[in-house]
């Protein structure tokens, strides 16, 4: 499944899922645009590393996904945007009656509003090119719920709903829109939480993973960033031309319960 000649813009991609997706898109031949809200040497070095390893063009563009104008400017600066992967997201946990308003606003802005702004800016480019893919990284929490995560779950449900709308609006064009709904994914951020959780519960690493972190994931295995990247590659391939307006769960059976 070669994506040579296509450009993929991945939001929130200087670490974790976004970076893993960027690597898999590049390995499939797509030029990639990395993004986050920082503008450090190491951010640009990530893009250079991807370019050197895979032979594609790779750039890093700073844009704050909490600001609509910067979301749209990211797409303009990218130039081409054949494949848009909306991945940027943050999390905060608290009971709804204690949920800080500023945290709610930030989560809705970054996890949901940013996808609206980038998609609105990218669709004209896709139409001009005669082809496009919108891939939204939602969550198992875009299909189900857990307590104390009201903003995140509201945002991810919103992403799933918006994905369906975009798919209907582009249904008779060579453009598709789909959402990937991961369960727990082994990222550096999750890995860093394991030692503290081991101490908190007085458990070994394997117990913490199976009984605490993956309590709701029947496979008892993390999804990987490579698997999510591979799913993005598939959705960008001709095999997925008639897959639009749907969700693909990469959650080890979580939403089958």
TrEMBL record:
<dbReference type="InterPro" id="IPR050259">
    <property type="entry name" value="SDR"/>
</dbReference>
<dbReference type="Pfam" id="PF00106">
    <property type="entry name" value="adh_short"/>
</dbReference>
<dbReference type="InterPro" id="IPR002347">
    <property type="entry name" value="SDR_fam"/>
</dbReference>
<dbReference type="GO" id="GO:0003858">
    <property type="term" value="F:3-hydroxybutyrate dehydrogenase activity"/>
</dbReference>
<protein>
    <submittedName>
        <fullName>3-hydroxybutyrate dehydrogenase</fullName>
    </submittedName>
</protein>
<dbReference type="InterPro" id="IPR011294">
    <property type="entry name" value="3-OHbutyrate_DH"/>
</dbReference>
<comment type="similarity">
    <text>Belongs to the short-chain dehydrogenases/reductases (SDR) family.</text>
</comment>
<dbReference type="InterPro" id="IPR036291">
    <property type="entry name" value="NAD(P)-bd_dom_sf"/>
</dbReference>
